[in-house]
């Protein structure tokens, strides 16, 4: 399977338009060793022709332009995107759908009931798309047992699990979490048996997760924050990382400790916030990740399994 990282940053991208933290200011002024990044999304293919898009960031048009295989050019109007899987309904993972409204063929969208609810009420993107291309919505089962496939993307099988997290700020049930608000997905190449676990919104390692993560040849998880109080320490937010559904990399129970249990898998952090020191390629924090064998996703990164 071919995994292509379309975007590796958290909401707001890097640098973030309104931010002058040392990272964003440093990148703008060319004073730090770091790469700019668009908002988090990957696409996956088993045959190199038909792709499944995971999340649709507001940067999707640029991301498609930067990855030629997503436009195979078989007809006057065409796309290599066979279907779209949404792992949550957050703004940074869904608003790109409005950018994909053209054409007479319906968008094939795979999401949980909770995400479907949010995208037809608090943030009615799917209703709006109904007035353009139309939407063919497919349910995503979250019992961890039933798998699903995406029509038009042969050789790939998906198994989703619910992850503990909060619904988006605009959601009618923001303060009342439900299974399916956020999911992790085990992606399997049915030709060679290779597996990847993709969970950019992984806030807590719940008991049902290790069994899935153990099977994975590649684990791509939440890389938003380095510390639990990163945003508080910079005076940017009053909530801790774990309180908004993001497990930080450092400290007890942090993502480095979690990932140490899977030394044979490729371990990659994605959805990295602009404030995170791991974005600086020569930082002590980045060196610590490297000692753990953990990689930091970048836009354009290719992972072949
Ligand atoms: C900044 C943002 C931080 C950021 C936070 C979150 C909060 C939100 C919620 C996130 C993201 C970026 N870039 N989604 O100001 O530095 O309350 O649910 O997901 O992408 S979490
Ligand atoms: Zn986000
Ligand atoms: Zn910043």
From TrEMBL:
Matching HAMAP family: PQQ_syn_PqqB (MF_00653)
What are the recorded Gene Ontology BP terms?
pyrroloquinoline quinone biosynthetic process
* Organism whose genome encodes this protein: Methylobacillus rhizosphaerae
Q: Which gene encodes it?
A: pqqB
Pathway(s) this gene product operates in, as recorded in its UniProt entry: Cofactor biosynthesis; pyrroloquinoline quinone biosynthesis
Q: Which family does it belong to?
A: Belongs to the PqqB family.
Q: Which UniProt keywords apply?
A: PQQ biosynthesis, Transport
What this protein is reported to do is described as:
May be involved in the transport of PQQ or its precursor to the periplasm.
| CDD domains, A to Z | PQQB-like_MBL-fold (cd16274)
Q: Does the keyword Iron-sulfur apply?
A: no
- Record keyword Transport present: yes
| Protein name (database record) | Coenzyme PQQ synthesis protein B
Q: Which residues form the Metallo-beta-lactamase domain?
A: 50-272
